[in-house]
Design goal:
- By secondary structure, the protein is mainly beta.
- It folds into five domains: about 25-135, Immunoglobulin-like (Sandwich); about 150-435, TIM Barrel (Alpha-Beta Barrel); about 445-515; about 530-690, Jelly Rolls (Sandwich), CATH 2.60.120; about 705-835, Galactose-binding domain-like (Jelly Rolls, Sandwich), CATH 2.60.120.
- The protein has nine helices and 45 strands.
- The strands form twelve sheets. The protein has an eight-stranded parallel beta sheet with strand order 18-17-16-15-14-21-20-19.
- Helix 3 (about 180-185) packs across helix 4 and helix 5 (about 260-275) packs parallel to helix 6.
- It is globular, with a radius of gyration of 31 Å.
- This is alpha-L-fucosidase.
- InterPro entries: FA58C, Galactose-bd-like_sf, GH, GH29D-like_dom, Glyco_hydro_29, Glyco_hydro_29_N, Ig-like_fold.
- It comes from Dyadobacter soli.
């Protein structure tokens, strides 16, 4: 640093200057950049590490990200010319002559290389550096498989408030011991610990240095004790953080300027510098989903604070119950969250779904052992769930590749192992430890982001000693699937799914990628409609349309499509068609999801610039063949963009098809999820090519796949009681799904066969958890005049099989009269299946 003095107007000004690049004090040319390994010591000069996470490399400062890292030098004579004199950069990254390193890292490791800089006069200097290409930020969380989420703090019953309450809290936590907490997590099979260290009561559990109006903070640094204890035991510590501070409405802390945002910016930086491994930000930061103030947690300022001060810290943005799987703050988010509810029933336990986004993310599901997030003094209010129920749920989530986070509340004294949960926790831990760890997921030699012009050979790899099992038919691979022995020939667009099994370890997560082959045979196939396949563009009775010229662009990159229900016969879908509009030339992602549980079945792509136009005016993209089950509902959507036009459709005039019914329009977010979207009620009509499975045995259920509705007993429409209890579930042929109306205990299921049929038998399968004790079954040909087929009282049967004299009818009702309220026998009526036969 150089001092410069200058006399101006009789006043002596003294100021300092820093030696900037190109202006070294001794004039000698030198490279000032340091290695990635020194980042935590010298973040201003060190190479920002890359992450092998399928997205473009970024380097961060608190000012924000850049899509490159700039090597720096000083001295000599600018401008500088850069090159790699020896060694290599991580695969996928390149250094240009201006000193910028950019690209997408594709292989992990520490890469020694020698940087060379040449100045304008030909002077040169070299420096040995190391560039780290780390695993994806959340890889460790993905690998953790099991952890704990502990709800505990000043708010714990009996809850305390204000500064006096904090003092009482610190006196009463006689059983809190960070080392014991960490050891208990280890003993129970956990690999991570999340704790509410800054909950909505505004109290931070450390002696924070960020000023606030009420200074609601502990004198004891509980957070640092937990971080250090966890790290000593080899487990990671994640800080729960609530952006709002108003759980106690009469004691609300803010920054000195009266805002949450200023306070939160300071607190997050403190936590990152203190050494937390991750941050779990609660739902009041999800302003895309809820009506909360964005400035409570200003993400555009907050993410750079996290990334600049610790490149490897991860964060999860909680979307709340019923919004599990929604991707927010992409591509910067590291964890997709599924949060279970507080009911004591199994339906409150969330089950995660695989993600369809390209970035490597961890999937977390957090479910409650009890029916409450925070400790309740009255034991009658606590209902810990059965162990077998929890283990079933853990298995389901592990099958989806999720890290399972078990949550339970801790009493006021800080005892992490309350007697009320001990036996169940031990039993769950016994199961977890027997199934701990994953085998490493297979890796592929091909990229699923490339469209190949000809057939390819796909190589799968896993650690030495592993066995790889794979499928090409859409089924999930198991140890009984085909054993991988040699490269797989991919001659057509194919979905490849694979697992690896290492000795002594459970099977890996599923590798699942669609490889697109645009060879001549596919292009020809896409342009024609063979006799054994149906092109159901839903308006096939009309003349072939002229090439569309009018259309709509999608500035938010939403998916636009339709929801369908398959008829009484399964269909094998082979091609998805999008209306051709002159000038379109983009590649569009295709997604197919099961409607009942939002499970993604397939992702593929449609290249509007490469595919021919069929006689019906559609461009057909071959997809890996997928069977859509009879009676089931599906979402099929294509991602649109700002450049290509699509033909919008509101589906008010819903067309008819042979193999399936179109129910309504569909919109998905840019990440292929239900939320957040702007519901303008516009989808697009897609054309599907498929084979029909004509193999049918026994009687045909005429209700299978037909239109079903939830109604009040006065026939006003009702919604489902939860986001999985759709009316269609009653006619989907799957007894594991349930239709249940919300808002009313007595309610009616209405089924429309679409035309009058002669019916002589009806079958009702009630839900295992709720049945009607008094109900009517009614039929009508015109939805006006109704005939009662049965009126049953004092019912305790879960399966009702009715035989009656043949009746000509199109509409059927199952109308529950009792139970009438909570606590009545039977519980709320749920219908697993409603079937009709001739």
């Amino acid at each position: 640093m150089k001092r410069i003095s200058e006399l101006v107007g009789g006043v002596l000004f003294v100021f300092f200057t820093t030696c900037l690049p190109g202006f070294g004090q001794d004039g000698k040319l030198r490279i000032t950049t340091t290695s990635s390994s020194e980042y935590q010591k010298s973040p201003q000069t060190s190479i920002y590490p890359a992450f092998v996470d399928n997205i473009i490399y970024q380097s961060w400062t608190e000012a924000g990200p850049k899509p490159f890292f700039q090597l720096t030098a000083d001295g000599g004579t600018p401008p500088y010319n850069w090159s790699v004199a020896d060694g290599t950069l991580p695969g996928g990254l390149q250094l240009d002559k201006t000193g910028k390193i950019r690209g997408m890292a594709n292989k992990e490791g520490n890469y020694p290389f020698t940087a060379k800089v040449t100045d304008a006069k030909g002077g040169t200097v070299t420096k040995s550096l190391v560039f780290e290409a780390a695993p994806s930020r959340s890889q460790w969380y993905s690998d953790a498989k099991f952890g704990f989420f502990i709800q505990w703090g000043v708010f714990t019953q009996p809850s305390l408030k204000g500064k006096d309450g904090i003092e009482q809290f610190e006196k009463r936590i006689t059983k809190f011991n960070a080392d014991k907490w960490a050891q208990q997590v280890v003993d129970l099979g956990g690999k991570s610990l999340t704790v509410t260290i800054n909950a909505g009561d505004g109290v931070r559990l450390w002696p924070s240095t960020t000023p606030s109006k009420l200074e609601l903070k502990t004198k004891r640094n509980i957070v640092k004790e937990l971080i250090d204890a966890c790290h000593k035991k080899g487990i990671k510590f994640i800080a729960y953080f609530a952006p709002d501070k108003a759980w106690n409405k009469d004691v609300v802390d803010t920054g000195m300027d009266g805002t949450y945002g200023t306070l939160n910016l300071g607190l997050i930086k403190e936590l990152v510098l203190m050494g937390v491994d991750g941050l779990w930000i609660d739902m009041t930061s999800a302003t895309e989903l809820y009506n909360f103030d964005y400035n409570w947690f200003p993400w555009k300022k907050m993410i750079p604070i996290m990334r600049a001060n610790n490149p490897k810290v991860i964060f999860a943005n909680n979307t709340g119950t019923y919004n599990g799987g929604t991707v927010l703050q992409y591509p910067n988010t590291d964890v997709i969250v599924y949060e279970g509810g507080t009911s004591q029933h199994e339906t409150a336990l969330e089950v995660a779904k695989p993600t369809t986004v390209k970035k490597k993310l961890a999937i977390e599901v957090v479910n409650l052992l009890d029916n409450t997030w925070s400790w309740r003094e009255d034991p009658k209010l606590r209902f810990s769930k059965p162990v077998d129920m929890m283990i079933r749920n853990i298995k389901k989530n592990w099958a989806a590749g999720a890290t399972y986070i078990l949550s339970y509340p801790v009493p006021a004294n800080g005892d992490i192992f309350p007697e009320i949960y001990q036996e169940k926790l031990k039993q769950i831990a016994s199961f977890v430890k027997k199934n701990q760890g994953w085998s490493q997921t297979p890796r592929a030699s091909l990229s699923d982001t490339v469209e190949y012009d000809s057939g390819q050979k796909l190589k799968l790899s896993a650690p030495a000693g592993s066995k790889i099992y794979y499928t090409l038919d859409g089924n999930r691979p198991t140890k009984t699937s085909k054993l991988y022995k040699a490269p797989i020939a991919i001659n057509n667009t194919s979905l490849v799914q694979a697992i690896s099994v290492q000795p002594g370890k459970p099977a890996s997560k599923v590798f699942s990628q669609t490889f697109t082959i645009l060879n001549n045979s596919n292009k020809t196939e896409a342009a024609k409609s063979p006799a054994n396949r149906t092109a159901a563009n839903a308006r096939s009775a009309a003349p072939a349309p002229e090439a569309a010229t009018e259309g709509k662009t999608e500035p938010k990159d939403f998916y636009r499509g339709m929801r369908i229900t398959v008829g009484a016969t399964p269909i094998r879908l082979t091609d998805v068609g999008r209306r051709f509009i002159e000038g379109n030339n983009s590649r569009h992602s295709i997604i197919i999801r099961r409607y009942s549980d939002d499970y993604p079945l397939l992702t593929a792509s449609l290249n509007a610039g490469a595919l021919p136009v069929a006689d019906d005016g559609f461009q057909y993209a071959p997809i890996p063949p997928i069977t859509l089950e009879a009676g089931k509902s599906y979402i099929i959507s294509v991602q649109e963009n700002k450049s290509d036009k699509f033909v919008p459709d509101d589906f008010k005039d819903i067309p008819a098809t042979d193999g399936y019914r179109i129910i309504e329009y569909n919109i998905l977010s840019i990440h292929g999820t239900k939320r957040p979207v702007v519901d303008d009620k516009i989808g697009q009509l897609l054309s599907l090519k498929y084979d029909k499975d004509s193999k049918k045995a026994g009687q045909v259920d005429l209700a299978l796949g037909k239109a079903a509705f939830l109604r009040a007993n006065n026939d006003t429409p009702l919604g489902p009681s939860g986001q999985i209890y759709f009316a269609e579930n009653s006619v989907d042929g799957d007894p594991s799904t349930v239709a249940m109306a919300g808002g009313k205990y007595p309610w009616t299921l209405l089924v429309d066969l679409t035309k009058v049929e002669k019916i002589k038998r009806a079958k009702i399968v009630f839900s295992p958890t709720g049945h009607s004790t008094e109900f009517l079954v009614m039929a009508s040909a015109d939805n006006k005049t109704w005939t009662t087929l049965t009126h049953k009282t004092n019912n305790s049967d879960k399966v009702i099989d009715l035989n009656f004299d043949p009746i000509n009818a199109r509409y059927f009702r199952v109308r529950s009269l009792k139970p009438e309220k909570k606590g009545d026998p039977g519980g709320a009526m749920g219908i697993s299946e409603f079937e009709l036969y001739q």
